[in-house]
Write a structure and sequence with these properties.
Distance between the termini: 53 Å
Largest sheet: 2 strands, antiparallel
Oligomer: single chain
Order of helices and strands: EEEEHH
Helix content: 10-25%
Shape: elongated
Structural class: alpha+beta
Strand order of the largest sheet: 1-2
């Protein structure tokens, strides 16, 4: 570790494996082998490839919110009775999906 200030130290580590990790630093005082663990929780480290952690605007778009079903109602009244019957039986009817242009 590199000392940056009286109470501040810094270390730079390359992280090559993706995943969720926890870490905590401990101290070993001079002339002893007994570590001292600071109070508080662990540091959380999430390592993700750049393709999934940034620049994913399209991934965040939920296309079914747009298009004909945007208002939340069924456009085709002939299907209303069938949809109600399927809902009563515990099925979920997914409306027609919108398009990115919508």
């Amino acid at each position: 570790m590199e000392r940056k200030d009286t109470l501040v130290f810094q270390i730079v580590l390359p992280l090559h494996e993706t995943g969720y990790f926890q870490a905590k630093c401990f101290f070993i005082p001079e002339n002893t082998a007994v570590p001292i663990w600071p109070q508080g929780g662990n540091s959380i480290i999430n390592v993700e490839p750049p393709g999934t952690c940034c620049a994913n605007i399209i991934y965040n778009a939920f296309v079914r919110q747009f298009g004909k079903s945007k208002a939340g109602s069924v456009e085709d009244r002939d299907l209303s009775a069938i949809i109600k019957e399927m809902d009563a039986k515990g099925y979920t009817v997914i409306p027609e999906s919108g398009k990115f242009r919508d």
